[in-house]
Amino acid sequence: MKTIYKRILLKLSGESLAGEQGFGIDQQRVADYSEQIKEIVDAGVEVAVVIGGGNIFRGLKGAAQGVDRVKGDYMGMLATVINSLALSSGLDAVGQPSQVLTAVGMFPIGEQYSKWRAIEAMQQGKVAIMSCGTGNPFFTTDTGSALRGIEVGADVMLKGTRVDGIYTADPEKDPTATKFDRITYDEIYRRGLKVMDMTATIMCKENNLPIHVFNMDVKGNLRKVVSGEPCGTVVYQ
Ligand code: UDP
């Protein structure tokens, strides 16, 4: 299999791990993602993954219900650790080694994240699963993905979602919405499209990290994206 990317940062939302049930962790979904990831590692791609925690807890939502925002954000970060362990276990089951790295120290659950530890793991053929987002409250795992992608020198940030790319409007609400094959960061901002939070988008733009949005729930799509077959939407400078 020919690949166009050597090293990727894959962002998976917590909600995507929940599958149809909408909360918690759907083991079938974890197994499907694990197989797709193993396929591209076998093809020689170095893979880092950042997982969200929205299927378990979000600091902002907690704050709206009276939880201290900083404590709530730490709860959200812990949710990303739970999801990271679930993916790591799913990868074990398909014979793909991985290394869970935590932005906040919590050995032996994972090793403390550093750029070098992550690169070393990838070079050893392991999937580097980076949890706790940035490790700071008031950020999101989208921003964590942008940051980690830039730090480890990823060729692209792949955002695996449940829609097949970026549309002019939310395709689940507006049937007339049309999909972009390519779009610039500025156009996303100008049109107010909700692809990622603004902090993450700006970090990618300022550091020239392309974003590729695609539907991760269709088996084989991750392979398509890394082999350069048309799939999803590419965001560029
Ligand atoms: N979070 C945080 N700092 C970070 C990343 C995440 O405080 O750098 C917390 C925040 O509360 C967030 C939660 O972790 O709501 C889960 O992350 P996110 O909402 O990005 O998950 P996703 O929407 O991708 O499932």
Automatic annotation (TrEMBL):
Residue ranges of the region described as Involved in allosteric activation by GTP:
19-24
GO annotation (BP), single: UDP biosynthetic process
Q: What is its EC number?
A: 2.7.4.22
Which reaction(s) does the protein catalyse, per the Swiss-Prot or TrEMBL entry? UMP + ATP = UDP + ADP
How is the enzymatic or functional activity of this protein modulated? Allosterically activated by GTP. Inhibited by UTP.
CDD domains, A to Z: AAK_UMPK-PyrH-Ec
Q: Which GO terms describe its cellular component?
A: cytoplasm
Primary location recorded for the protein, binned into one broad class: cytoplasm
Tell me the Pfam families matching this sequence. Answer: AA_kinase
Q: In which pathway does it act?
A: Pyrimidine metabolism; CTP biosynthesis via de novo pathway; UDP from UMP (UMPK route): step 1/1
Q: Where in the cell is it found?
A: Cytoplasm
Chain positions recorded as UMP binding sites = 53, 73, 134-141
What keyword terms does UniProt attach to this protein? Allosteric enzyme, ATP-binding, Cytoplasm, Kinase, Nucleotide-binding, Pyrimidine biosynthesis, Transferase
Q: Which residues form the Aspartate/glutamate/uridylate kinase domain?
A: 6-215
Q: Where does ATP bind?
A: 11-14, 54, 58, 161, 167, 170
User: Which terms does the record give in the GO molecular function aspect?
Assistant: ATP binding; UMP kinase activity
Q: Does the keyword Cytoplasm apply?
A: yes
Family the entry assigns: Belongs to the UMP kinase family.
Role of this protein:
Catalyzes the reversible phosphorylation of UMP to UDP.
Question: Could you give the subunit structure recorded for this chain?
Answer: Homohexamer.
Q: Which protein, by its recorded name, is this? A: Uridylate kinase
Q: Name the source organism.
A: Sodaliphilus pleomorphus
